[in-house]
Amino acid sequence: MNNITSEMTTAVLTGTGHSIPPYAVSNEELVTSFNQYVTTYNKEHQEAIRRGEKEALPESSVEFIVKASGIHNRYFLDKTGILDPTRMCPHIPFRTPEEPSIQAEVAVKAAQEAIRIAGKTPGEFDMVISACSTTQRNYPAISIEVQKILGIAGAAFDMNVACSSATFAVQLAVDSIRGGHAKAVLVVNPEVMGGNLNFRDRESHFIFGEACTAMVIERKVNLTAPSPHAFLIQGTRLLTDFSNNIRNEFGCLTPTYPKDIAQKSQFFTQNGKKVFKEVTPLAASLIQNHLEAHHLTPKDIKRFWLHQANLHMNTLIIRKLLEREGTSEEAPIVLDRFANTGACGSVLAFHFHHTDFKPGELGLLSSFGAGYSVGSVILEKV
Ligand code: CO8
Question: Atom 30 in ligand 1: which residue has the minimum CA distance?
């Protein structure tokens, strides 16, 4: 392959962007609201609890949340509804089809930053992928709405591989460029989670926060000037392994379910301990195998931008890969501020921690989550 042909089929990440919703919610605020709900519930059911017909609900605690997850804070589109112990669900006013949807709106904000950083204009793109865990509606695709708002030609589609959606979308974008189907791809990850979270569930009420990230992936031949943000995508690897340990039942058959099941089906549920035990080795071995396939070792990697679900998971993955403790420069953490932002986690870690790379240095973006699913992307600074 001559140089020009290879540059036309080589994919480069040239810009990332983000948008964070306006309302910060601290552990203290979440726990106060949760514990008010618990007090009211236990009071209302005190007779049944005394008779042993119902179990008293235990309180949540800030200390537990920090110790078990490393999370201190998260952001949501609304906090009054979430923190109201009689509601515990965000207030998000319904929008008519004539108005931009919430997911498209947050995606456009993140996309505009990524497009600016990449030094491009919307007219230069020919593909949009919206990749995330949450879906505001089934169709028309959010990506097509984003495409319309930004004025992008070509094709757009949505995909969902839960928390791994961003890395899976990177592989699709790279393959589209390699196959000649696209010249420049915009990937957006509009995670709007408030409606799927059960804020009355002690095990999961603290886990998630909302965010949107965006990535510009384009042909290397498009690169005209050196940029602190441009990284060659050396390789991608994906893995899935079916598990019910993280599940959201909501879908087109929900109206046919018995009422109590239909009601519960909207919520995220997980067996956190099992997920922790099973996904940690899965992610570490996929990364290790991916690097080996590229004749690399973890020691060749300057930085791992890992999925941001749990601080201890990331610590263990890095210890397994490097055979020693990692530093915050080797594996930056953003979940303390943003919590688990689904598909956005590893992209946020990249977005805030990549401008110190020198040409030739390597980094690795990895996400893992429901499915189970794991993705790995090797990036080389150009
Ligand atoms: N406050 C106080 N105590 C608590 C609380 C609480 N809030 N919650 C649990 N406890 C207690 C338990 O009752 C238990 O008590 P005991 O020992 O007396 O039985 C004790 O604390 C320990 O509980 P756990 O075993 O559950 O605690 P862990 O140490 O396992 O920590 C975590 C729980 C933090 C959830 C941890 O297991 C974890 O982070 N696991 C990995 C989770 C993960 O990575 N999930 C991936 C999800 S991302 C994805 O792909 C899905 C995307 C979908 C997004 C859409 C969202 C809407």
Answer: 273
10 touches 64 (CB < 8 A): no
Identify the CATH number of the domain in which residue 335 sits.
3.40.47.10
The whole-number pLDDT of residue 3 equals 59
With a 6 Å cutoff on the Cβ, whether 134 touches ligand 1 is: yes
Residue type, 12: V
Asked if the structure places residue 247 within a domain, the reply is: yes
Shortest-distance Cα residue to atom 6 of ligand 1: 60
The reported pTM is 0.96
Are 33 and 200 within 8 A, CB to CB?
A: no
274-291 residue pLDDT tens:
999 999 999 999 999 999
**How many domains in the chain?**
1
In a domain, 305, yes or no: yes
In terms of residue numbers, what domain contains 343?
231-381
Residue nearest to atom 31 of ligand 1 (CA): 68
For residue 350, tell me if it sits in a domain.
yes
- Averaged pLDDT score across all residues of the chain: 96
Amino acid present at 53: E
Find out whether 114 and 216 touch, Cβ atoms under 8 Å: yes
Whether 245 is in the pocket of ligand 1, judged by its Cβ within 6 Å, is no
On whether residue 53 sits in a domain, the answer given is no
Ligand 1 pocket mutation pick from 64, 65, 72 by most atoms within 8 angstroms of CB: 64
- With a 6 Å cutoff on the Cβ, whether 273 touches ligand 1 is yes
Main-chain dihedrals φ then ψ at residue 106, nearest 5 degrees? -70, -35
Question: CA neighbours within 13 Å on the CB side: how many for 376?
Answer: 25
What local confidence, expressed as pLDDT, does residue 222 receive? 75
Max CA distance (Å), the chain: 80
The alpha carbon of 49 and the centre of ligand 1 are apart by a number of angstroms equal to 25
Q: Which tens digits make up the pLDDT trace of 189-224? A: 999 999 999 999 999 999 999 999 999 999 988 777
| DSSP reduced 3-state for 300 | helix
Ligand 1, atom 35: closest residue by C-alpha? 272
Taking only the tens place, the pLDDT of each residue in 69-126 is 999 999 999 999 999 999 999 999 999 999 999 999 999 999 999 999 999 999 999 9
